[in-house]
Give the backbone structure.
Amino acid sequence: MGMNIGDELHYLDEDNNVTVKIKTNKTVEYNDTEYSLTKLTQELLNLDYAIQPTRKWSFNGKSLHEIYNDTYPI
């Protein structure tokens, strides 16, 4: 989807200024800990269940949901 290891993602929440770095094709790094984006989003939202995280994160000012839809159109 045009992102590389080391790129930064930004959490889309005005109350939390969270930035993570892409660590692998399936994980990000936050506070020196490796997470899946789903698991980290679940923790940031204090949920006891997983949610689809792409609407909660952005890359270069565009939500991951938009990037995904642009990359993989129906």
